[in-house]
Amino acid sequence: MKSLVLLPLLLLLASGCVGYRVGSQLPGDIQTIFVHVPQNNTEEALLENDVANAFLAQLQRDGSLRITTEDQADAIAFIEITGFRTEALAFNPANRSQATEYRLHIDADITLTRANGNILVQSGTLSGREVFILAGDLTSSRRTALRPAADDLARRLVAAITEAWVQ
Question: Which pLDDT tens digit goes with each residue over 39-83?
Fold first, then answer.
């Protein structure tokens, strides 16, 4: 009986996606990628290393493109880190001016070009985020959220260059 009730609901939900599929937005001849060290336009020292490591790891997990040297690459990725900020989310009830929970944001743009310089993909600003609890000082606590925020940004950057909804 439950399946008779759920079947029409599933059909209704699925009908909204008829004709769409997730596919690659990259041309078929783009198989390899070289990634330049990200340009860090923030005051956060060495942020480009965390973003680069997360992006390379995500590219490997995704498997759509093989990482190679610049002279062998079909495409070249340029990442520009444009923002690094902390946002207070929750406050101590006894002292409303003291934040206890924060969200870390890392913002970046990505441009993917062919080896000859022609632009394939140019994203708008993408943001990686991670929530963290204040434990000790803000700098140390923020450091614990840096890698997860960079990983979240990397997932978004890779999706921006490899995935597209096509009809």
Answer: 999 999 999 999 999 999 999 999 999 999 999 999 999 999 999
Phi and psi at residue 146, to the nearest 5°: -60, -50
Supply the pTM of this predicted model. Answer: 0.83
Confidence of residue 149 (pLDDT cuts 50, 70, 90): very high
* Residues in a beta bridge with 102: 88, 132
User: Which domains are assigned to the chain?
Assistant: 20-166 (3.30.160.150)
Give the torsion sign (CA, 54, 55, 58, 63).
negative
User: Whose structure tokens read 């001016």?
Assistant: 97
Q: How many CA atoms lie within 13 A of 47 on its CB side?
A: 28
